[in-house]
Design brief:
GO terms for molecular function: GDP-mannose 4,6-dehydratase activity. The protein has ten helices and 14 strands. Bound molecules: NADP nicotinamide-adenine-dinucleotide phosphate.
Amino acid sequence: MKRALITGITGQDGSFLAELLLDKGYRIFGFARRESWLRPNNASHLADRIEVLFGNMAEGVDISSAVQAARPDEIYNLASQSRPGLSWDTPAETLVVNGLGAVRLFDAVRHNSPQCRVYHASSSEMFGPSAGGPQDEDSAFMPVNPYAAAKVYAHQVARIYREGYGLFIVNGLLFNHESERRPLHFVTQKIAYGAACRALGIVDSPDLDEMGLPIVREGKLRLGNLEVSRDWGYAGDFVRAMWLMLQQERPEDYVIGTGKLHSLRELCEVAYRTVGADWRDNVVSEPRLVRPLDAGCTLADASRSRARLGWEPTVSFEEMVTRMVKAQVDRLRAAATHG
Ligand code: NAP
């Protein structure tokens, strides 16, 4: 039975990946902060099927202890401070977790488990604004936020350790991927939530935004720049690509994305249409919510992944948004029923 260690098991990707690997017969070790694991999280439903190792990616000793305890064949390093927007407020902490944490993990592998195969979560945010055309594995990095800068650091050290020490480390350059498990502070989930509030006639929402105000206030969802465009895919599809990367003969970096660009305005259109409403009556754009710098339009050229991994997305943009809205309707209904 293969053994896999997943950092960030409580997150969106960690929970989808754990389900996938359990289906494949893996023994799963999840690395999680104790306080996060002990409250309801994305992987709670798997609690009796996985073994949890408590620790923090900011602590080197926690990371090496987990690698020693799990003795994994594969590691998926998904833990990170994953919010580019928040990284403006916490640049140093973001670097410690996303940059140093990853490098400490690579070191733990080098000293304790050099045969282990490692997937590292890089990000399309590292590319920054598209200088022209879709981005592939050879496109230049131009990070425009502290999150992306920390990811570039870890990405480069992963490559250096692969070439210098001969470790099997793969960087996955994943474009945005969403699902019903995305936390509420991500704009895509806010839009799904806004549409769900509209469906249920909620004018002032129970959930609050980063400023402590209802996400839907006086019947309106308040967002920043609606013309921001991204290549959005479905998380369930993307974790399959992570696994495929570690099954290849030799380690290489891969871009994963759908190759289709959509704006937040389009996302609003689909979400509100799902509940029979017009987004223009329900969404307003506010300057205070616009990011200091935005990565602009980023579009994936996933030709290498399609050719070598045989990877294809299976869930469309419309289907993904519809699933997210329905999940938020169910969640709000359940919350209303249970008090
Ligand atoms: P997510 O849902 O925010 O999950 C992040 C995970 O990291 C959570 O389990 C979180 O645990 C854990 N974590 C954060 N700080 C930690 C710390 N100090 N110690 C231990 N664990 C910590 O993110 P995701 O969407 O699943 O993304 C997975 C990875 O892919 C991340 O590295 C992200 O940056 C990267 N990525 C994501 C996307 C995307 O569109 N989703 C795109 C490109 C790259 P808590 O529950 O304790 O917070």
